[in-house]
Design a protein that fits this description.
Elements: H1 2-5, H2 12-26, E1 31-35, H3 40-50, E2 56-61, H4 64-75, E3 79-84, H5 93-102, E4 108-112, E5 114-115, E6 120-121, H6 124-134, E7 137-141, H7 153-156, E8 160-164, E9 176-180, H8 182-189, H9 202-210, H10 223-239, H11 241-262, E10 265-267, E11 280-284, H12 290-295, E12 303-305, E13 314-317, H13 326-339, H14 345-359
Parallel strand pairs: 2-3, 2-4, 4-7, 7-8
Antiparallel strand pairs: 1-9, 5-6, 8-9, 10-11, 11-13, 12-13
Helix pairs in contact: 2-10, 5-6, 10-11, 11-13, 11-14, 13-14
């Protein structure tokens, strides 16, 4: 432990260098602010900075985080138009376009890229194009998608892109980041309700850190978490971002193929095009409770029951970060087969074939 306690203080230059690494990962030249907390911090910061009384937001709900965003938007006294789709599917660009046409006053759109909790993912490039044509600001929750799916922040026109390090990046949960476009800064700066002198304030970071040349940190950084974030960014660079993305896609394809072969479990998200690469959610057959099944598995495996009302019927396999490997997928399928008294050989063969097919 002493080697960690004896580290020299993390300086502004090193902090800024880690921000620059995040910007490269997001393919953005916009300002990136690394905040000292779990990703809910920049998500709430972004919403409370951009939403205000008199604004109208389209809140796209494809999972539980969309519900949270709607609550924050309403707390800001914004008018909220919810566009909700079943949690086992994705929202389409056409649905978004229809909602924008029905409510031309919409000036802010909140969207989750991948929902790890429900295992679905949304077609962000196409949706972003629709939002941009409408002229609204787009906030994207990319916490579960960064490093597992392509994320071209500038090319797609994402104004506020929030990430966390704890999923596909394989890093810490205690720091997170948001990129802020010039359009977003204009809106936030003009918003009299934007937080100031607050841990939620993006404007405080802008004025005291970014606009000041990133020469002096506004407060003591979370040193160990920042170093861990830098280390996981270095690891992604060494592996290569395309290889990291391919590894997650392979893990998802292998898990889905193996589960389908088992017969006692089926993908909760039936359409492969809508399946997130970070987590595969599985629907149990009648009479087989997901929470009971999860309790029979080795707790070291990346498996848990669904949250809330989904705990009885949905199992979640978290194949992200270090768990996005073929041995982990095979070990998980083997355990599921044993727990359900199902032969595993066919499922393992299907998983291996799917992994190889994605890798080609």
């Amino acid at each position: 432990m002493s080697q960690f306690l004896d580290l020299p203080p993390l300086g502004a230059a090193q902090f800024a260098a880690i921000e620059d690494q995040v910007a490269a990962l997001l393919h953005t030249t916009a300002d990136v602010i690394v905040q000292q907390g779990e990703a809910l911090l920049p998500l709430e910061s972004a919403i409370r900075s951009a939403a205000h009384p008199g604004s109208t937001a389209l809140n796209i709900v494809t999972g539980p985080y969309g519900q949270t965003f709607g609550n924050w938007l309403r707390d800001c006294d914004a008018k909220v138009v919810d566009l909700a789709v079943p949690y086992d599917s994705a929202v389409s660009p056409e649905q978004v376009a229809d909602a924008l046409r029905a409510h031309p006053e919409i000036d802010f759109v909140s969207l989750v890229h991948a929902e790890a909790a429900t295992g679905n993912t949304n077609p962000v490039p196409e949706i972003a194009a629709v939002v941009r044509e409408h002229g609204a600001l787009l906030m994207l929750d990319a916490v579960a998608s960064v490093a597992a799916e392509p994320l071209l922040t500038d090319a797609w026109g994402i104004d506020l892109c929030v990430i966390g390090g704890q999923k596909a990046m394989g890093g810490p949960a205690g720091v997170s980041a948001v990129s802020v476009s010039a359009r977003a800064w204009e809106r936030i700066t003009a918003n009299p309700a934007a937080p100031r002198r607050s841990y939620l304030s993006l404007l405080d970071w802008k004025e005291r850190w970014t606009d000041a040349g990133r020469r002096a940190l506004p407060h003591a950084p979370a040193q160990l978490e920042m170093l861990a974030l830098g280390a996981c960014l270095d690891r992604i660079t060494a592996e290569g971002l395309p290889a990291t993305i391919a590894r997650h896609r392979s893990a998802a394809a292998a898990t889905r193929a193996g589960a389908r072969t088992l017969g006692t479990l089926t993908p909760f998200v039936p359409d492969d095009r809508h399946a997130a690469p970070v987590a595969t959610t599985l629907r149990t057959t009648p009479g087989l409770r997901a929470d009971d099944l999860a309790a029979r598995l080795d707790p070291a495996l990346p498996v848990q029951p669904g949250g809330g009302p989904l705990a009885a019927d949905m199992l979640r396999v978290n194949h992200y970060g270090p768990a996005a490997t073929l041995p982990t997928v095979l070990a998980t399928l083997t355990a599921l087969a044993e727990a359900t008294d199902t032969p595993a050989d066919a499922a393992l063969a299907a998983a291996e074939a799917a992994w190889r097919a994605v890798g080609r």
